[in-house]
Amino acid sequence: AGQIKVFGDVAKTFTNILAYGTGFGSLGISVGCFRVNKLGGAEIKVSKWGGATRNLGYVFKNEEDRERAVKAAKEYLPTLRKEMEEKYLSEFSGEIYEVEFVRRQHHGHCYLYICFHTRFEHARGHGDTSAAVGFARGRFDGKFQEKGIAFVQSLIAMGFDGDLKPSSRNRRGRYVSAQVKLPISEYEKMSKTNIDSLLSYMEIDRQGVTQEQGHFLYSGMGGEIIPAIYRGTKVNPRPYNVSCTENVYVEIKGEDVIYGVELPNLEVGAASSREGLICPTAREVLKFMGIGTSREFAAATAAITLAGEFNFTLLHLRGEMYASS
């Protein structure tokens, strides 16, 4: 279904495997790839690391015990962090880059969340992070008991760490953006309208997402394009709804317009891992697309999403989308 050229943090040509929408049926994304390539390709920015997060939860009967636990945990943390990295994260060069302590309360119960944020350059790292935090739970339990700190319950509190939820707290995955720049006059010629129409179109879309839905999820067609790429390649994670968060943006720079998409938390393990094997057919799909690493998967996904969004917007502005005679 065509190819898409990228440059910037990743310089390569990827093959598009999506032979459907957006817009004009099977030609939608293919036409978008053609248009972006004609403009020189998509500029890619992709983060070096992919993030993973897992969270511990403790329940205390009073604030005093909770504060004693925070003090003990912070004192023990340097030793524990080294153990976690050596035992569970080092195989894929992972590291713990931040640990959050968050206090909450519900009636007579005092809660403490200890949230571990990890990052990996070439792996998804979610399973390894989960195992490391499970190990930390046992160590903290023992340390609190040793110091006579009473707690009602300890557990892996998945709800707090953004697990499979599109939210502002979600710090999992890898950031990637793709954009194309062209003269305003050229875009006006392509869209058969003026640049103000593009800006108002983007604002309608933004308000529909952030104000009507009440939270950021995705704008544009990313909610269809991104899952289709995951289904086609069958990479981890199997539940791809986390990675469907997307922002479509437009910027005016002098006489040029920049049209781009950013995927703030794209999760991917592009090779087999303890989190699940990638079937042989899917491996061939990745080879066919030209994808060999997690960063290349992110770049290809962003570029193909950009192509679909770019063409989708043009069709709307030209009055050709869902038009009936």
Structural descriptors:
six-stranded mixed β-sheet, elongated
Poorly predicted regions are none
- Strand residue content: 25-35%
Strand order of the largest sheet: 2-1-3-8-10-9
Number of helices: 8
**Helix-strand category:** alpha+beta
Count the E strands. Answer: 10
Helix-residue proportion: 40-55%
Oligomer: single chain
How are helices and strands ordered from N to C?
Answer: EEHEEHEEHEEHHHEEHH
Please specify the SSE layout and strand pairing:
Layout lengths: L2 E6 L3 E4 L12 H11 L3 E5 L3 E11 L2 H27 L5 E12 L2 E12 L5 H21 L6 E4 L17 E10 H8 L3 H18 L9 H12 L13 E7 L2 E11 L13 H10 L4 H24 L8
Parallel strand pairs: 1-3
Antiparallel strand pairs: 1-2, 3-8, 4-6, 4-7, 5-6, 8-10, 9-10
Helix pairs in contact: 1-8, 2-3, 6-8
